[in-house]
TrEMBL record:
Lineage, uppermost ranks: Eukaryota, Metazoa, Ecdysozoa, Arthropoda, Crustacea
Gene3D superfamilies: Phosphatidic acid phosphatase type 2/haloperoxidase
Annotated keywords: Membrane, Transmembrane, Transmembrane helix
Record-linked SMART domains: acidPPc
Membrane topology annotation: Multi-pass membrane protein
Location(s) in or outside the cell: Membrane
Protein name stated in the entry: Phospholipid phosphatase 1 isoform X1
Organism in which the protein naturally occurs: Hyalella azteca
Length: 282
C-alpha cells in the first residue's frame, strides 16, 4: 500500500510540474488566437444554410448581457469575491495576511486560466463548425439566386453577404459563429467555479447562509448569460446548451487538477504553521 501511495504521489507531482510548466504558454497562445479570430485575421471557411430556414431569419436585438459586462463579471467578480472572503474568513492557527493573499492569487490564476481555456475551445468550434446565427439573414443577407436555393443547402462565405447593415468583416464573420455560445460557456464556468469555492470555504455556521446566497447569485448570473442569448436572437438553444455543458466541464477539470490542490495545501499549512508562513511559489 505504501509503494502504491508513493506511486500515486509521484504521478500527481509529475502532473503538477507539467501543468505549471505548460499552462502559462497555453494561456498566452489562447489569448493570441482569440484576439486574431475576433479581428477576422484567421482563415475562415464557409457556412451552409437553407435559404428558407426560419431559424436564421430572426431579428437582431440589443444584447441583454454585453461582452463588456460578461468580461467584467468574469474577471472583477471572482477577484472581489475571493479576495474579500479570504481576508475576512475567521483567523486560524498560522493563517496570515500573506497566506490569504497567496491563496487568493492562486485561486484567481486557476479561475482565469480555466476561463481562457474554455474560450479557446469555444473559438475552435466556432471556426470549424461555422453555424449561421439566428439573425444571419438580416445581418448578412447573402446574394443567392432562387435556382441555387432550390438545390437545398447552400455554401456561403462573408464575401457573399450584401451587408445591408454596413458591418465590417469581423462582424460579418461573427454572423457565422453561432456554435457554441461563448456567453453560456463563460457564465457556466464562473457559476460552477464560484459555487464550488463558496461551498468549500464557507463552512462555518455563521457563514453557511452567506455562501448559499452568493452561490445562488452566481448561478443566476450564469443562467442569465446563457438564456439571454436565446431571447436576444444571438444563439440557437443548442448553442447555449452545449456552451453551458462545455463551461461546466472545464470548470470541474480546473477544480480537480488545480484549485482543490491549492486548498488542500492551505489547510495543511494552517494545521502545521511552523512549516511555512505562506504557500510555496508557483
Amino acid at each position: 500500500m505504501t509503494s502504491e501511495s508513493q506511486m500515486k504521489a509521484e504521478r500527481a507531482t509529475k502532473s503538477d510540474v507539467i501543468i505549471r510548466k505548460y499552462l502559462p504558454g497555453a494561456v498566452y497562445a489562447g489569448v493570441v488566437v482569440i484576439i486574431l479570430s475576433h479581428l477576422g485575421l484567421l482563415p475562415k471557411g464557409h457556412t451552409s444554410i437553407l435559404c428558407d430556414d426560419p431559424d436564421i431569419r430572426r431579428i437582431l436585438t440589443t444584447e441583454t448581457v454585453s461582452v463588456a459586462a460578461l468580461l467584467l463579471m468574469a474577471t472583477a467578480g471572482p477577484f472581489v469575491n475571493i479576495f474579500f472572503l479570504e481576508w475576512a474568513l475567521p483567523g486560524k492557527s498560522g493563517r496570515s495576511a500573506r497566506h490569504a493573499s497567496s491563496l487568493s492569487w492562486r485561486l484567481l490564476k486557476d479561475c482565469f486560466s480555466g476561463q481562457l481555456l474554455a474560450l479557446l475551445i469555444v473559438e475552435f468550434f466556432k471556426m470549424t463548425v461555422s453555424e449561421a446565427r439566428p439573425h444571419f439573414m438580416q445581418t448578412c443577407r447573402p446574394d443567392l439566386s432562387d435556382q441555387l436555393c432550390s438545390m437545398g443547402y447552400v455554401e456561403v462565405t462573408w464575401r457573399n453577404c450584401t451587408n445591408p447593415l454596413g458591418l465590417d468583416k469581423p462582424h460579418l464573420l461573427d454572423s457565422m459563429k453561432s456554435f457554441p455560445s461563448g456567453h453560456a460557456a463563460l457564465g457556466a464556468f464562473i457559476a460552477t467555479y464560484m459555487t464550488w469555492y463558496l461551498m468549500t470555504r464557507l463552512r462555518v455556521q455563521w457563514s453557511q447562509l452567506l455562501g448559499v446566497v452568493l452561490a445562488l447569485l452566481w448561478g443566476a448570473w450564469g443562467a442569465l448569460c446563457g438564456v439571454s442569448r436565446i431571447w436576444d436572437n444571438k444563439h440557437h438553444w443548442w448553442d447555449v446548451a452545449i456552451g453551458a455543458a462545455l463551461g461546466t466541464c472545464i470548470a470541474a477539470l480546473t477544480i480537480k487538477w488545480l484549485s482543490s490542490k491549492h486548498l488542500a495545501e492551505s489547510r495543511r499549512q494552517s494545521t502545521h504553521p511552523t512549516t511555512s508562513s505562506s504557500l510555496p511559489p508557483a
